[in-house]
Amino acid sequence: MPATPRKVFGAALGTWLLLALVPSADAATEEPGAEPEPEPAAVARTAIPSPEELEAAGAVIGKVKIVVGDVFDTSAEGEGGWLYRTANHLHIQTRPSVIRDQLLFEEGDPYRHRVVQESERNLRARGYLYDASILPIAYDGHAVDLEVRTRDVWTLNPGVSFNRKGGENAFGVQLQEDNLFGNGQRIGLQWDDNVDRQSVALSFYDPHFRHSFNQLGLAYADADDGSTKMLQLNRPFYALDVRHAGGIYLIDDERNDARYALGENVGEFGHVTEYYEVHGGWSPGLQGRWVRRWTAGATYDRDRFEPDPDEPLGGPLPADRELVYPWLGFELVEDSFQERVNQDQILRTEDVLVGLRASARLGYAAEALGSDRNALVASAAVQDGADLDERQSVFGSMSASGRLESGELVNGVVAAEGRYYRATSSRSKFYAAVSGAVTEQLDTEQQLLLGGDNGLRGYPLRYQAGTARALFTVEQRYYTKWYPFRLFHVGAAAFFDMGRTWGRDVTGLESSGLLKDVGVGLRLGSSRSSFGNVLHIDLAFPLDGGDDIDSVQLLVQTKGSF
Hints:
Blueprint: H1 8-20, H2 39-45, H3 51-56, E1 60-69, H4 82-90, H5 96-101, H6 113-124, E2 129-139, E3 143-152, E4 156-165, E5 168-177, E6 186-193, E7 198-206, E8 215-223, E9 226-235, E10 244-261, E11 264-282, E12 286-287, E13 290-307, E14 321-334, E15 337-340, E16 350-353, E17 357-365, E18 375-387, E19 392-405, E20 408-425, E21 428-440, E22 448-450, E23 464-466, E24 468-479, E25 488-502, E26 515-526, E27 534-542, E28 553-559
Parallel strand pairs: 1-3
Antiparallel strand pairs: 2-3, 4-5, 5-6, 6-7, 7-8, 8-9, 9-10, 10-11, 11-13, 12-13, 13-14, 14-17, 15-16, 17-18, 18-19, 19-20, 20-21, 21-24, 22-23, 24-25, 25-26, 26-27, 27-28
């Protein structure tokens, strides 16, 4: 179910307007839940053996202390004002029990540094936490005491959001809480108005359902072109050494799908989707550096289409499709994670897989099971990364999917991407990326698009369409020391994009050839809010195209990376 990105500045603005109404407090006193002074722990750590020495000595885990830090550290320079203290007072801290439930170890377990590091990664993946660290604070020769330190972010978003890309605006009004009563649950009510539809949506997500690693998700949306209902109950492979997983996923979706040519809506049709899936998984756990996982499941996937009497089709009406199939899956993961800063975020600890991850899934839809055809349904994906030296790294990924029907490949898509990073100074980085996709007999409701909403920033959204596409991007990134209001880390970028499509689209559109743009952008990396990671404000200038393209494009959007 699409949702407008929550803008970092929108959430911050709503927060500051709310806080401005609160009268100033007198001189500060440290709240009982405030982050304690770190000096005693730092002194104790100097006499503690290294993680390798602790493991070799057969140390066991003694006491586990949970320290949850506020949104603002009022003891730090620049964060001691009444406004910051009031923000902390209004914010409900994450409950220590919620943090403890996510640890992969318990008191009395053997100390294993790999498990401690993986617990840190799991905590940092939670949107309501900015960072997490787990450090030994005492050792008596047998038991090592650990301190788990986390820092909350502001999770209440009573406000508005704005998004602009490809020449189109999107607006939203929402009331969302990402850490309900400090339990890590997310609940939201929002109204969205974007290029596709207007909708009102209610959602709930609990990543720790019943104090476990189970995940529960519920959503309902009512739109001007249909509605969406979703239920998800899932127990994932939440750690490398987890042996079992499983879950169900149910979605009913009714909407209008639009067709685009040269950035203009040229047709629409009604689309009703019913997708139900149940699966289970097993793994022998981590063996050496590798994890192997097997999954099995069953899927019901039905798509129905009908013309909209008030809109042109813009191409042929897609044929209805009903697939019922069991499937088998396999995943291979290399235990090769690294902690980095300024990889895709701004001054935030990132857990980067510099290693191999591969997966594949194969199913068979048969008429005997209720399908409207016999088809082999397959998908696969692989990603890998490597450091060339201390300053350079490369990452690549590839995916493929499709159906084999009557000896022919249908709805086949092969996509690939490569990314290159080179640190040019302590506060700058060069980034380059190349991506592409080719298709074979796409289902006619699908379009392979390229435009301002997916990488070609100087052009309207969904501008080019075809049966294949390619995109090349280079950026020079800068990381400043500016930290306004202790809310955002500020960065900037100069960029160049080049891309095109090939082939005739379902609308009959032919590619307009190679398109290029240049531009500059401002980046605001959120350090206090859970609503989006990096806000992009870009000015892009197209170098090709006709008079129908504006000479400058303004893009405002939140992304998960720089």
